[in-house]
Structure formats: structure tokens, C-alpha cells
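Chain particulars:
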Amino acid sequence: MTKANKLWDSFKYLTLLIAALAILFPPYIIVVNAFKTKAEFQTKSSISLPDSFFYLKNFAQAFKQANMINAFGNTLFIIALTLILNILIGSAFCYAIGRFNFKFKGVLVGLFLFATIIPSITTQVVNYKTIQTLGLTNNLLGPVLIYVGADILQIYIYLQFIKNIPYELDESAMLEGASLIRIFRTIIFPLLAPATATIIILKTIAIYNDMFIPLLYLPRPEHVVISTSLMRFFGVNSGDWQMVSSAILIIMIPTAIMYMFLQKYIFAGVTSGAVK
């Protein structure tokens, strides 16, 4: 190995090390501060270790103060209803687009492509006015409609999978007298299980972490969700940071577990169709 190659390898490893530290540093700060007392947090450095990792009072207080039982319930309702609508509408739409030729099909697909380049923040005035007209502000159904209508990720994931399902399956079912609805329900949709799992994971994480839409459409305290529950630890000029750290750690646990066990579906769904 030449000297130049050694230098290049050293540079690559150094870059990876810096990237790993940059990624791991914020979780480290959250973990060490979640176990500190208020006195420790005020007198010690924020990067120092706590006196004890068995100080769990912060977690109990954070869970109660943030009303996390209500927050988890509201979040679960929004996620479940959004996923049901996304999966049903997205899979049916992609079945029609992927299997049939009709007038303005290209225009319709082009409009979806065009929608991806429009910054979502620029449409918030129209979205809010629409939700307000429907009387769904301060209603859990408001964010559901926004999440269902504003994200077309499921369209592209389902299309990738449907294009790889042989059309001969449809033809065989038609020869047996099956209707298009039955073909979709009994043949196509079950084969879309990996795509559905991918959408469930990605949408769940996106909704779980989103603060902007719940903060805008659900200002009432009884409609608190996981992300907005963290606002209860902040005042006008101060924040209870050790409590915030404990709350964040509680909130991170479900998504971390889900991602650990289901990450293979994410990569399978996103990359499917890239190599045929």
C-alpha cells in the first residue's frame, strides 16, 4: 500500500469517526442529563456523567407533568387512522396507475411528481384555511387529513412494488372470473405486504416526530400529542432541561425499538425496484 493510499484511508476513517461522534453526541447529552437532579444540572457540566444512573424521579415526574398517557393515546389515534387511509387510498390508486392505461394517466402522475418539489411550508395557509372551513381545527381529524393529503411517499413505494408483480397473475384470475376488486383484494394487496410495512414504519416515525402540524392545529391542552407534550417543560425565559431530557428519552424508546426490529423493511421498501 502506497503512502497516498494510507493517507486516504486515514482521512476516510477520521471522517467516519467525526460523523459517528456528531450523531452520537446529542443522544449522549440526553441520556446523561436525564438522570441528573436539578442541583447536579445547575452545578455540573452538561456533558458530565450523573452521580447515579438509578435516579428515576425525573422520569416519573416527566411522564405525569407532560400528561403522556393522553399524549400517547392521541398520537396513536392520529397514526392509526392516517395509516389506514394512506394504505387503502395509496395501494388502490397505485393499482389503477400501475395496471391500467387511461386518458391523462401521464398528466396525473406528473402532477404527483410536481407536488414533491413544492415546499410544504408554502401551502400551510391554504391547508389551514381548508381545515378551518371543515371545522376540524382543535380536532384530531385535522392533522389526519393533512398527513393523508400532503404526503405521497406511499404512491412511489407502492408503484415500485406493483411494477414488479407479473401481470400474468391478473390475467389468470380474470380467466377464473375474478373481478378487478377481488384481484386487488386477494392477489395484489397481499403481495404488497413489504411495501405496506415500509409505509407503516416511515409514516409512523414521521408523524411521531412532527411538532409543527399538531402545534398549529391542536392548541388545546386536551389534544396534546407526544411532540407537543415537551412544550410543557418550557417557560418564556427558561426550561427544565433535565426533565426535558427524561421526557425525550421516554419518547425515544418506542421508535428506537421499532426501528431496530423493522429496519430491514425500510431498506427493502425504499430500494425495491432500483435493481430488477
